[in-house]
C-alpha cells in the first residue's frame, strides 16, 4: 500500500510517484507496492474489514463478554493491519524533517479517536483510507496499461545468424550489420533494414494503428514491429540502446517529470495547507475553552480529530497527477506521445497551427496525375519511362513506377542537360524528355497548355516531334482534409502551411484542403522567419507540425512542437514536445481533444474536492459531522475523483 512510500513534498505519498524518478526529490527507498492484483496486497484490508464487521455486530447485539480490554484489544487487532504502515511512515517522514504529511494527520486523528473510546470510527477511518490507497493503485495501473503495452513491445530474445546457424541471444549483444531472423508472430528486437523481398508488419504497439504495413527490401524495420507472415531476415542498423523505440520508452517513462502548472500549484498549495489545518485543529481543541461555557475537552478534541480527517488533501494530490497521467496514457493508446503533462495543458491553448506541406499534409511521394499524348498512351508512357529510367530523380521514379510491368525499351546515348531534362536514342529516334525549356531549346513546338499547369510537367518529343506530357504531383494524405476540418472544430482559428515547394503548387494544395494561408518557395531559414512573423500577432499560441528532420529549428521555436510520423527520427524525438507516431495529420486535433478532456477532468476534481471538503469542514467544526462524514469527505471524495480521473481511459477520440 502507498503508506510504505516516503513522500518528500508534504502531500500524499501515492503510487503515481513511482513513474517519475527524475523529480527534485529522489525517493531512494521507494517500493513498487502498486501491484493491486496481488492478494497479499489486499490481505491487511480484508482482515481489518472482517474484524471490524464482527466487532460492530458484537457491539450491536451488546454481547456481555465483549467489553473492557477484550473490546479494546479486538478493535486494536482490526486497526493495526491497516494503521501500522501509516503510523510507521508518519515517524519516518518526521525523522527526515518532513513533519506535516497526510500520514501524521491520519495517525493523530485515529489514535485520538481511540483515546476518546471511538473505536469503530478510528478503525473505519484507517480501513477506508487503506481501501482508497488500494483503489488508487488499481486506478494508476489502469492508467498505465497503455504505456505498459508500449514498454513491453520489445522482445527479450534476438535470433541472430552466427557461425552458419541461427542462435538466440540477448538483443544487447547483437552488433550493427548482423542478420536477424523473424518468424511469423515475432517482434523485431532491434532497428534494421529488411533483407527479404517484402514483409507485412503490425505496427499497432508503436503507432496505435492496427492496419498492417507492407515493408519492402532495404526499407526500415523498427524494434517492436510484429511480423505477420512467413520467415524473414533483417540487417541490424542500430544498437539496442540507440533504437528509436528505446528513445521513445525513455520519453514515456519520464513524461511525468514535466509537471503541468495546475499540478505544481496543487503541490505547493498542499505544502502550505497541511500545516495550516494541523494548527487549526489544535486551535479548535483549545480555543473554545476561552469562549464557550460548559467547555468539554473530549467534545472539542473529537471535533478537531474529525476536522483533521476531513482536511486531508488526498483527493487533490491523488486525482490531479492521476488525471494528467491518464491523459498521457490515453494519448499513447492513440499513437501520440506527450513529453510531459505541461504540454497536455499548453496544447489546449493553441489557436494557430502551422504545418509543413511535404510529409505532413502530403505523402511526400510523387505520382503521375494526368497524361495528354499525341500517340497511343501505352506507347507514350513506355517511351517516357524508358528514358526516365536512366535518372534517379524522384519524378523519374514516379514515371517508371506508373509504367508498371511494361517492358522498357533499349536506350542509347543518354545525355543529361542540366536544369532541362534528358536526351537519348530509342529505336533509332532522338527522344527528348524534360521541361518546356528543353523542347524550346531543341526547336520542338508544343501546346502552351503544358506551361499553364500548376503541377510539375514532363514533356516528351520523339524525332523532334511533340508526343505529349504528364503532370506529376505529391498526393495529399487520405485524412489531410479531415484534419483541417477537425482543427477548426477544436478552436484553431488560423491554419498556415509552409513549404519549400513552388508557390503555385503550395497554393493549390492549400485551396484543396481548406488551409487558411499558404507560403511556398521557402528555405528552412525562411520558415523560421515566417513563424516569427506569426508570433508577433497578438494572443497567438502556436503549434508547428513537421516531419522532425529538417524542421527542428521551427519545432523548437513554436509554443508546442509536434513531430509528424517521426517514429524513426531521433531529431524529432529530441526536438518536439509531442510526437505523433504515424503519418496521420488528423491526430493533431486528437492530441488537442485529449488535452481538453484531461484539463476538464482535472478542474472537475479540484472543484469536487474543494466543494465537499469546505462544506464538511464547516459541519465538523460546528459539531454536526462525525468521523463517518469525515471518512466520506476524505476517502469518498478521493474515490469519486479517482473514478473521474480514469474516465479518460474509456473515452474515444
Automatic annotation (TrEMBL):
Q: What is its EC number?
A: 7.2.2.12
Q: Which residues cross the membrane?
A: 42-63, 69-87, 272-292, 304-325, 601-621, 627-646
Task: Give the matching InterPro entries.
Answer: ATPase_P-typ_cyto_dom_N, ATPase_P-typ_P_site, ATPase_P-typ_TM_dom_sf, ATPase_P-typ_transduc_dom_A_sf, ATPase_P-type_domA, Cation_Transport_ATPase_IB, HAD-like_sf, HAD_sf
Which terms are listed as keywords in the entry?
A: ATP-binding, Cell membrane, Membrane, Metal-binding, Nucleotide-binding, Translocase, Transmembrane, Transmembrane helix
Record Pfam families:
E1-E2_ATPase, Hydrolase
Catalytic activity reported: Zn(2+)(in) + ATP + H2O = Zn(2+)(out) + ADP + phosphate + H(+)
Q: What is this protein called?
A: P-type Zn(2+) transporter
Species, as recorded = Pedobacter ureilyticus
Amino acid at each position: 500500500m502507498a503508506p510504505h512510500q516516503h513522500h518528500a513534498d508534504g502531500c500524499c505519498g501515492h503510487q503515481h510517484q513511482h513513474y517519475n524518478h527524475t523529480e527534485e526529490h529522489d525517493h531512494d527507498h521507494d517500493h513498487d507496492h502498486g501491484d493491486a492484483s496481488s492478494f497479499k496486497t489486499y490481505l491487511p484490508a480484508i482482515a481489518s474489514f472482517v474484524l471490524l464487521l464482527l466487532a460492530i455486530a458484537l457491539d450491536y447485539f451488546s454481547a456481555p463478554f465483549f467489553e473492557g480490554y477484550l473490546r479494546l484489544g479486538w478493535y486494536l487487532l482490526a486497526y493495526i493491519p491497516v494503521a501500522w504502515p501509516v503510523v510507521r511512515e508518519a515517524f519516518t517522514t518526521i525523522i527526515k524533517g518532513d513533519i506535516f504529511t497526510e500520514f501524521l494527520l491520519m495517525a493523530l486523528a485515529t489514535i485520538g479517536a481511540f483515546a476518546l473510546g471511538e473505536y469503530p470510527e478510528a478503525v473505519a477511518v484507517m480501513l477506508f483510507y487503506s481501501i482508497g490507497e488500494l483503489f488508487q493503485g488499481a486506478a494508476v495501473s489502469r492508467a498505465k496499461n497503455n504505456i505498459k503495452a508500449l514498454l513491453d513491445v520489445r522482445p527479450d530474445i534476438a535470433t541472430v545468424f552466427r557461425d552458419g546457424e541461427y542462435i538466440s541471444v540477448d538483443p544487447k549483444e547483437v552488433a550493427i550489420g548482423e542478420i536477424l531472423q523473424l518468424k511469423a508472430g515475432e517482434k523485431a528486437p532491434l532497428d534494421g533494414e529488411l533483407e527479404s523481398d517484402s514483409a507485412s508488419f503490425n505496427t499497432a504497439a508503436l503507432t496505435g494503428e492496427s492496419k498492417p504495413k507492407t515493408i519492402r527490401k532495404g526499407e526500415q524495420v523498427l524494434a517492436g514491429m510484429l511480423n505477420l507472415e512467413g520467415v524473414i531476415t533483417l540487417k541490424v542498423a542500430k544498437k539496442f540502446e540507440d533504437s528509436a523505440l528505446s528513445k521513445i520508452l525513455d520519453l514515456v517513462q519520464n513524461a511525468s517529470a514535466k509537471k503541468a502548472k495546475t499540478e505544481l500549484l496543487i503541490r505547493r498549495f498542499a505544502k502550505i495547507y497541511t500545516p495550516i489545518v494541523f494548527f487549526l485543529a489544535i486551535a479548535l481543541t483549545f480555543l473554545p475553552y476561552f469562549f464557550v461555557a460548559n467547555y468539554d475537552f473530549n467534545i472539542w478534541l473529537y471535533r478537531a480529530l474529525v476536522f483533521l480527517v476531513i482536511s486531508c488533501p488526498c483527493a487533490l494530490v491523488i486525482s490531479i497527477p492521476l488525471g494528467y497521467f491518464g491523459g498521457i496514457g490515453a494519448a499513447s493508446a492513440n499513437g501520440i506521445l506527450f513529453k510531459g503533462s505541461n504540454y497536455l495543458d499548453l496544447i489546449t491553448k493553441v489557436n494557430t497551427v502551422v504545418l509543413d506541406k511535404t510529409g505532413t499534409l502530403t505523402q511526400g511521394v510523387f505520382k503521375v496525375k494526368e497524361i495528354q499524348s499525341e500517340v497511343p498512351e501505352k506507347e507514350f508512357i513506355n517511351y517516357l519511362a524508358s528514358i526516365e529510367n536512366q535518372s534517379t530523380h524522384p519524378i523519374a521514379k514516379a514515371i517508371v513506377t506508373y509504367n508498371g510491368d511494361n517492358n522498357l525499351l533499349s536506350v542509347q546515348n543518354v545525355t543529361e542537360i542540366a536544369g532541362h531534362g534528358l536526351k537519348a536514342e530509342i529505336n533509332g529516334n532522338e527522344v527528348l524528355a524534360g521541361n518546356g525549356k528543353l523542347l524550346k531549346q531543341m526547336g520542338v513546338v508544343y501546346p502552351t497548355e503544358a506551361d499553364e499547369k500548376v503541377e510539375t510537367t514532363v514533356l516528351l518529343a520523339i524525332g523532334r516531334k511533340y508526343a505529349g506530357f504528364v503532370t506529376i504531383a505529391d498526393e495529399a494524405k487520405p485524412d489531410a482534409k479531415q484534419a483541417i476540418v477537425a482543427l477548426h472544430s477544436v478552436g484553431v482559428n488560423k491554419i498556415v502551411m509552409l513549404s519549400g515547394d513552388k508557390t503555385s503548387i503550395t497554393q493549390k494544395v492549400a485551396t484543396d484542403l481548406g488551409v487558411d494561408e499558404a507560403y511556398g518557395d521557402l528555405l528552412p531559414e525562411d520558415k523560421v522567419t515566417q513563424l516569427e512573423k506569426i508570433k508577433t500577432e497578438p494572443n497567438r499560441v502556436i503549434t508547428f507540425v513537421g516531419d522532425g528532420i529538417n524542421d527542428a529549428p521551427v519545432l523548437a521555436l513554436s509554443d508546442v512542437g509536434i513531430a509528424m510520423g517521426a517514429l524513426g527520427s531521433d531529431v524529432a524525438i529530441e526536438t518536439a514536445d509531442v510526437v505523433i507516431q504515424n503519418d496521420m495529420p488528423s491526430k493533431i486535433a486528437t492530441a488537442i481533444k485529449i488535452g481538453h478532456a484531461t484539463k476538464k477532468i482535472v478542474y472537475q476534481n479540484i472543484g469536487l474536492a474543494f466543494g465537499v471538503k469546505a462544506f464538511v469542514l464547516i459541519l465538523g467544526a460546528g459539531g454536526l459531522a462525525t468521523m463517518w462524514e469525515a471518512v466520506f469527505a476524505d476517502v469518498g471524495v478521493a474515490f469519486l475523483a479517482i473514478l473521474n480521473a480514469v474516465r479518460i481511459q474509456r473515452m474515444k477520440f
